[in-house]
Design brief:
Length: 270
């Protein structure tokens, strides 16, 4: 009887330990997912998956490629208001880019929103339902200092699915914008590529030279969309020079042409 009790007690203790380990493991995985990480990234990181998550769903079958154009603001959401309205810059640029892509047989463009106010989830779902291969979210910047100017591009942060593709696409965009004469913001290398993280309600922006993997969430559209994606800040609508060169019809057309060329380059190299 004593032996049976001992065996039962030992099994009960081991079962308790197993449940505790499983519980902590599930909590760990769930925490990563809720903080913007993906299970495929977690498995790859700890060696349980030998397929790099960046390459799990990239279209390498050739054209036509579906490109989602995400106007960052629209409808009742006008974005920032300064020398010009942000949503007007976005709308003009997005339509110009759509026309360029639509005229190219290699691409099928789509908008994630029209004149409505969908959430980040709904805009990402629109891209997903269309089977988008790439997404560009267009915004315009603003600052309390009117001297702030230039272009910057936010890629999906390190450790995220599609990070490398997102970074590559951002690099192509920055090069095209620089070639078009825009001022490129950033660190000493002036890469123009940045990462954004949220700590509660506080937003922290770092240059791409800071490649530390963080579990903090980035911009919603960069976290939610099911394909490589970037978010561009086309110009500062609080700076007269930026507005003149990049927020007028001519400036928006110039920016759209740069995005179009970057999209072509991205797909030519995957």
């Amino acid at each position: 009887m004593t032996i049976i009790s001992f065996v039962y007690s030992d099994l009960k203790e081991k079962a308790g330990r197993l449940c505790l380990v499983c519980g902590f493991s599930l909590f760990f995985v769930f925490s990563f997912i809720c903080n913007g990480m993906h299970l495929s990234e977690l498995l790859y990181g700890i060696g349980l998956c030998n397929v790099r998550p960046d390459f799990l769903a990239v279209n390498t079958n050739g054209p036509p490629y579906i490109v989602a154009i995400d106007p960052g603001h629209g409808g009742m959401d006008t974005g920032a208001l300064a020398i010009v309205k942000e949503y007007q810059v976005i709308d003009t640029t997005a339509r110009a880019l759509f026309d360029l892509l639509d005229a190219d047989a290699d691409f099928v463009p789509l908008f994630t929103r029209t004149d409505t106010d969908p959430s980040n989830d709904e805009r990402a779902a629109a891209a997903a339902s269309a089977g988008a291969d790439l997404l560009i979210s267009i915004h315009a910047n603003s600052d309390s200092h009117s001297s702030s100017k230039g272009f910057e591009c936010f890629a999906q942060p390190p450790g995220r699915i599609f990070h490398q593709q997102s970074y590559n696409f951002a690099s192509f965009i920055v090069r095209q914008m620089a070639a078009a004469g825009h001022t490129i913001r950033g660190d000493e290398q002036k890469t123009g590529i940045k990462y954004a993280y949220y700590y509660g309600n506080d937003k922290r922006i770092v240059d791409s030279s800071d490649d530390k993997v963080r579990s903090r969430k980035s911009f919603g559209i960069l976290e939610k969309s099911p394909c490589p994606r970037v978010l561009v800040e086309q110009c500062f609508i609080t700076n007269h020079s930026d507005v003149e060169n990049w927020a007028t019809q001519t400036g928006c057309n110039r920016a759209a042409q740069a995005y179009y060329q970057a999209i072509k380059q991205y797909f030519s190299e995957i």
